[in-house]
Amino acid sequence: MNILETVVVASRGIAGNLTRSILTVLMVVIGVGSVITLVAVGNGTTKQVNDQIASLGASAVDAYPGFDPQGFMPAPLTQEDADALAKSPLGPDITLVAPISAATAKVVAGDKSSSAYATGTTPDYFTIKNSRVVEGRVFSPSDVFGGEAVAVIDGTLAKILFPDQPSVVGKTILVAGSPMKVIGVLAPTAVDKKFGTGGSEGNLFAPIDRVRATISGFGPLAGVVFSAKSPETVDAAKQQATAILTARGSTEPSFYSSDELRETLGGAQESLNGMLASVAGISLLVGGIGVTNVMLLTVRERTREIGIRKALGAQPGSIAGQFVLEATVLSVVGGGLGVLLALVVALFPINGVQPLIDGPTVLLAAGLSVIIGVFFGTYPAVRAARMNPVEALRVGT
């Protein structure tokens, strides 16, 4: 039997039991579709997280005082350190620098109050952090220079202090007993939207001298925020900041940037992707076992046919090739339909995540469908090829 005849016989075998063939194809469709869809959901989640982290300021770096091996902080950061970071020729990749003085403070508005995190800084902070203002404005350099009693609050604090007010700009609040005028409201950050505020009762930002004079005191800085020229130069900017600060007698500072956040979340993301891929792989395995089961039943039902063909001189390879071809055709058809199904499903968000299908995953899943046909169809085919023709005719009678 030549290849063409083998294809014709295999086609007749598939069409001879159409219902079973359709169910076999359906199993492969579910397996392949699950692989592509779940991996696409993982890709989409990863992209979503990375985009959200990038929206916080992909080039922003938070620098905090370093600790010595005994766990002490021998040299806190100072305003002079922040000035050095901004002006030193050793930091060509450092652009904007904003000192931070911070403390928790009781904030009161009428009969509402909150224990908010008050940050004293400069206008560059909002640029570095890519902050988005939904109402009013952030404070200006003249506000900082004059130590004006103005404050920018986030949406969380605005809801706590002014739950029924459509606009809070122009309102006066008491921060640690000192009155401040609200001049702007910041939009929730991407991290706030995804992970909440971590139990915080809101954030307040004010000119650094105002915060130091009324809340935190004129001691060391809580930290310094600076931005690199680009996300690609963040590591270089960190090294330059370390060189500048250690040259001034500080210990090596601790840094926190979007890279650290991305790495922290990336580990969990990789675990999630691995779990999704495992679940999808199990679906594919179940589909392959289904192919084996169906082909074994097919071989059993066609025992007499196999016996006749072998009695007429058919070679074992011809018989085996027929059943392998049947299994492969069913798997390939199922794989193709599975890819189409995944492409359709990926058009719609799943639990708020837009699936992102990539080419390698599609090729891998399609290739696996072929491998499933060959691998899981080989055992039934070999079993059919090894049948004794006399025994096959007797059993198939």
TrEMBL record:
Alphabetized UniProt keyword annotations: Cell membrane, Membrane, Transmembrane, Transmembrane helix
Primary location class: membrane
Residue ranges crossing the lipid bilayer per the database entry: 21-42, 275-299, 320-350, 362-382
Presence of keyword Cell membrane: yes
Entries under InterPro entries matching the protein: ABC3_permease_C, MacB_PCD, Macrolide_Exporter_MacB
MacB-like periplasmic core domain segment(s): 21-243
Presence of the UniProt keyword Cell membrane in the record: yes
Record-annotated ABC3 transporter permease C-terminal domain positions: 278-389
Location within or outside the cell: Cell membrane
Membrane topology: Multi-pass membrane protein
Family according to the record: Belongs to the ABC-4 integral membrane protein family.
Protein name: ABC transporter permease
Native organism: Microbacterium luteolum (Aureobacterium luteolum)
